[in-house]
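Async update (no meeting this week)

Hi team, since we skipped the sync, here's where things stand on the single-chain job. The sequence we agreed to prioritize is pasted below, unchanged from the tracker. I ran it this morning and attached the output directly underneath so nobody has to dig for it. Comments welcome in thread, and please keep replies under the output.
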Amino acid sequence: MMNDAPFNRGCLAGVLLMIGALAVGWFIQSPDAAHASALRTAAVVVQAVIGFGGAAWLYARERARATRTS
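Output:
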């Protein structure tokens, strides 16, 4: 049976990257970003940090696992 765990983690990392990119895009393109409340701005920053941070963590974890097994 094939081990799909690395592929699944890669897909999850891709989804997290997209979530982080949506947050950055909101800051760049949305005219509401300048007039948003502090709470909404903080929520979008948290979204970006979780998205990019989670993707980076999954990538680093997979790289460490690949170097241990090879």
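Quick observations from my side:
Residues 38-69 form the longest helix (32 residues).
The chain is about 80% helix and 0% strand.
Reply here if anything looks off.
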